Amino acid sequence: MKHVSILVPETAVPAAIVDPSYMFNAVNEFYKSAGHQPFFKVNLVGHSPEVVLNGGSVVIKPEKLLSEVSKTDLIIVPAITVNMAQSVKLNEVYKDWIVKQYNNGAEVASLCVGAFLLASTGLLDGKTCSTHWLFVNDFKQQYPNVLLSDDRVITEQNGIYSSGGASSYWNLLLYLVEKYTTKEMAIMASKFFLLDTAKASQLPFSIFKWQKLHGDELILEVQCFLEDNYQLKLGIDDLSEKYAIGRRTFERRFKKATSNTIVEYIQRIRVEAAKKQMELGHKNVSEIMYEVGYTDPKAFREVFKKYCGISPAEYRDKFRR
């Protein structure tokens, strides 16, 4: 029997505690229905006997305190809310316990922005991780030593797992069920919970956030210009001349401020503009391509797929009104 410890930190998202418990206990019921013993022993584990969440509307009473769990097989770190840095600080008591359990053989899985709490332990340094696309920039700033894979729904490395944004943690839970039990059991769970097992990327659901909280006034001016004129054929030399700054210095400052090269930033702006047009559904892909500054259908498809994970036509069919 595998022991699963679902943490109940302060500021946790209640659903990210309840849903993993539901998943693993449902699998136990599948086993019992087939005449077998339950496969998982599932416990909610917290620092205090009672945790008040969601502004007081939800109260969860952990079945075990941290001090009462000497060994576990799998730790689930749920998503947290409010300011991420503040939430991590409120839950520092979990850090040493997670590290101790991992060093003792436990595996650890973070759900969505639970990656912030997991990363604070140092266990993710030098490893690949995913989190909600909306918090990518904050994560990179707080944990520069973590290899953030912001397009992935699931990551796995050295017994540490993570999931992308929001409901994509169901895919990670299903993945863990298959790893610990059998493919047949995972299929049964996917049917029971109506889960799409084919989802591999959160790129189609992401929205590019203009990174402007960097304090570099010149780069901010350039960003605003690019956003207003993304349809134009803008070269790096043209921009460096326009703003009277050497090309190498310009490229270095832009990358430092926005975490994107100038070319990447322009591509992202154009793709975001194209996505909005596709969601309206009034124009075909070729019309939209020309409107956002592309003339080569192949190049447009490649850039669009790079940032969205699917082709322009697939995106239009999926999201248009």
- Please provide the count of β strands: 11
Give the N-to-C terminal Cα separation. 48 Å
What is the domain tally? Answer: 2
**How many separate helices?**
14
What's the order of the H and E elements? EHEEEEEHHEHEHEEEHHHHHHHHH
CATH superfamily of the largest domain: Class I glutamine amidotransferase (GATase) domain
Write down the Rg: 23 Å
Q: Bin the strand percentage.
A: 5-15%
Spatial shape: globular
Give the structure's gist in a few sentences:
This protein has 321 residues and is α/β, with parallel strands linked by helices. 46% of the residues lie in helices and 13% in strands. It folds into two domains: 2-205, Rossmann fold, CATH 3.40.50.880; 217-319, Orthogonal Bundle (Arc Repressor Mutant, subunit A), CATH 1.10.10.
Task: Characterize the structure shown.
By secondary structure, the protein is of the alpha/beta class. It folds into two domains: 2-205, Class I glutamine amidotransferase (GATase) domain (Rossmann fold), CATH 3.40.50; 217-319, Homeodomain-like (Arc Repressor Mutant, subunit A, Orthogonal Bundle), CATH 1.10.10.60. Helix content is 46%, strand content 13%. The chain is built from 14 helices and eleven strands. It has helices spanning 15-33, 84-90, 93-103, 114-119, 136-142, 169-180, 183-192, 217-228, 236-242, 247-258, 262-280, 285-291, 297-308, 312-319, and strands at 2-7, 40-46, 51-53, 58-60, 64-65, 74-77, 107-110, 128-129, 147-148, 154-157, 160-163. The strands form three sheets. A seven-stranded mixed sheet has the order 5-2-1-6-7-11-10, sandwiched between helices. A two-stranded antiparallel sheet has the order 3-4. The protein has a two-stranded parallel sheet with strand order 8-9. Helix 1 (15-33) links the parallel strand 1 (2-7) and strand 2 (40-46). Helix 1 packs parallel to helix 6 (169-180) and helix 6 (169-180) runs antiparallel to helix 7 (183-192). The longest helix has 19 residues, at 15-33. The model has no long low-confidence stretch (mean pLDDT 91).
